[in-house]
């Protein structure tokens, strides 16, 4: 990966582990977060745990996915820094709102703003640079981190702000349902974008991945809010994989050679790094169009 320029959104959990893997392979990796203090701790961890053998470079780039305007500005700022972008991994996500969903300045629920709309705008703004890099002969890839939870979403309306802010109040685990709803949006967007890239004969390879059941930094933060957190962390640790392994699918999708039968444009890759079918809702072309059309209409309304 020496000579490759990579963006990974998120500074903890699977994002941090993905960064470490790619950095150790020699890539120049941009870590994108809104908080420089949190990033500073992550960078210290990268140095402490080592960048060998590839000794790749790690650089902080400010990005706030909760505000689509900020996401666009961040991408535009990146365009002034680099003349190439080989890999974009849209990893950052709000895993749980701890039962307290919030609205951003545009009245959008945080799970959809952070997990879907922010990455959508960030990626859209970076597409010209990704295309230019591919035109120059590089193997360019976009890797979106989805979730197999998209297969069990029962509410599939993406045509209004009210729908985007659906609370799932009558669900057993409303916060988890809100997360899965936002991840289904990521799957719908990915599948729609894959077709659009194919239509224009783009050189970009777009993939979506599921990391598996991971005891990540974010999961541990959530468990720490429970009574007897050490007990729950121990129990979850028996059933879930560490975040280093959670990054395997993202890194595999980002840099495995294309002669691998599981690496192809539009592939959905799950552990142990194999392509599998997505759920019917994610493949529903009507829902893909509805989400894309409302997203573009919403962005026009807020001036993006």
Automatic annotation (TrEMBL):
SUPFAM superfamilies, alphabetized: NAD(P)-binding Rossmann-fold domains (SSF51735)
Organism superkingdom: Eukaryota
GO molecular function: oxidoreductase activity
Listed Gene3D superfamilies: NAD(P)-binding Rossmann-like Domain
InterPro entries: NAD(P)-bd_dom_sf, SDR_fam
Keywords: NADP, Oxidoreductase
Family: Belongs to the short-chain dehydrogenases/reductases (SDR) family.
Protein name as it appears in the record: NAD(P)-binding protein
Lineage, opening ranks: Eukaryota, Fungi, Dikarya, Basidiomycota, Agaricomycotina
